[in-house]
Amino acid sequence: xxxxxxxxxxxxxxxxxxxxxxxxxxxxxxxxxxxxxxxxxxxxxxxxxxxxxxxxxxxxxxxxxxxxxxxxxxxxxxxxxxxxxxxxxxxxxxxxxxxxxxxxxxxxxxxxxxxxxxxxxxxxxxxxxxxxxxxxxxxxxxxxxxxxxxxxxxxxxxxxxxxxxxxxxxxxxxxxxxxxxxxxxxxxxxxxxxxxxxxxxxxxxxxxxxxxxxxxxxxxxxxxxxxxxxxxxxxxxxxxxxxxxxxxxxxxxxxxxxxxxxxxxxxxxxxxxxxxxxxxxxxxxxxxxxxxxxxxxxxxxxxxxxxxxxxxxxxxxxxxxxxxxxxxxxxxxxxxxxxxxxxxxxxxxxxxxxxxxxxxxxxxxxxxxxxxxxxxxxxxxxxxxxxxxxxxxxxxxxxxxxxxxxxx
Length: 408
Hints:
This protein is mainly alpha-helical. It folds into two domains: about 10-220, no CATH class; about 235-385, Rhodanese-like domain (Oxidized Rhodanese, domain 1), CATH 3.40.250. Helix content is about 55%, strand content about 5%. Helix 2 (about 40-45) packs across helix 4 (about 90-105) and helix 13 (about 250-260) crosses helix 18 (about 360-380).
């Protein structure tokens, strides 16, 4: 349903209704394409009918191209797209079983349901066998678990394994698909003895093929960051947030996060790597202002449930990082007011024993809090903790990793 629900075009409460409509439409398309015929589906293995290959290639290329451009325009958030994890052993065994069943029965799980709905007896038998297999696997899962979860490779992508960029992989895959269309059509015509007159009467697909290649070729040269997107904040909104103080978080709040070992903030050190290596706050990431908009930091910057806190020695570098992130449309981003200099002044310079006779209770409470925090740092409270006691955020690798949905 993306990108219609996130952009407010479709009411989220109607998700199941539209899912039903799309499901019916998908089944109708499969039926019209002839995917309810076991003979037609098995034809790809015998060389007389390659419609299955061409339809699936068309669907894959169309979805891939749409995902590329919708994601680039900001209309599709790829962080919410599920990516199937790869377990090598189960993938090999499962692929072999499915391939053997496909060539013997003429159906895959989805097409067997479509054919069964139309009343085909062989599809009904195939569906019953599939349900029996599901039952056996579920009942004896513990016996199959070592195979099912064997050799876990993570959420890998073909282009990462090949060591090429995502746009180049998309272009190469489109070219391979078009070549497959042409080659399989020639094989099909030769096996079926198609007359030259019928071949000449077919419509030409050269123009749409060239448009597809041109679109993917253009994508190779698009800048890494688009100039604007739907979530981009306007300058007036950013100025209002800074003037009202909403763009800032107090050093007291950050100190409380560290002392009480909470996990509500993502601390981002905007100083140089050398300064970061010399000293930083516990659990902080090092992202300099010029790196904020890099693709590899997007999964962290898009964590809406946690507040991202930029800090430096003072306010200047944190302000640069904040303005870049806020302008790009990232939510829950703030700056630590005064930076590390102010935090150290409050903890180690200005903190005194609270005056128990002072009239202002807030001042007395603040002094007690800062005194307790100073003692915590000076007495090695951080060192006493186990290294993995506080959840850490791992910085992503340099390579670009953008999830895409898979599966049949």
